[in-house]
Amino acid sequence: MSNETLKKIEELTVNGRVEVPKATPRKAATRFTDIADLEGMRLAGKLAADVLLMIEEYVVPGVTTDQLDIIAHNYMVTEQGCIPAPLNYHGFPNSICTSVNDVICHGIPSKKTLKKGDAVNIDITVIKDGYYGDTSKMFFVGDAPVHLQRLCKVTQECLYLAIKMVKPGTRLGDIGAAISAHAHKNNYSVVEEYCGHGLGTTFHGEPQVPHYGKPGTGYVLEEGMTFTIEPMINAGKKQVKHTGPDNWIAKTKDGRMSAQYEHSLLVTAEGVEVLTKRPGEPF
Question: Whole-angstrom Cα distance, residue 271 to residue 278?
């Protein structure tokens, strides 16, 4: 089966990346009340989630992360009519982030092949009609070691418990404290150099959403806000080192594994809407 998939991957990537249409930006905002804006965010979120669903069958031993980038790029542009937000963003050279094993985030796709036992976070951000959808998840390449499965499970739990807390009046310090408490309870550390962020008609805006904090402090959530929560949890220590072009790639300083899950969220009057929800998730 893997050989058939690799053959399909070769066919999908042989001609490289299609040209990206020119973007027509909207006025930057991360809070919305107009139904047209909310529907724009819902569509962008769904399309970002769909890319993760599409790419899963191609995450197999022998594929390169560059091939995954080509497949995702062409799908976003050709099938979805989207623009890959990371491409050329502050000099980032690719359309998706592929963070393998000890890479925390912003992994740059390359010609290196994935092998059995690897784990890779694929981070997707699309722009659809000026609205942004941003999401990521972990993929296992073949059978994953038990310790890696556990790290990913706890990281996803950190995201899910944080999402359940989102509603008008919640403080971001409470959310960050809950994330870090769950990670520390499981003997993991929380990366503090990167955080979630306001999202809407801009890629990164206010508020900043740290994954650690002090209860009763921080920004107060309000209806209509759109932002990401994206905890990065390390098996070892929290310290980060930077490598790669322009120091884009963030890795664990101690070389141990890292995991991340991310969703785009809308604060509603009743609580929260997960804009990038995938089938089977408990929201």
Answer: 19
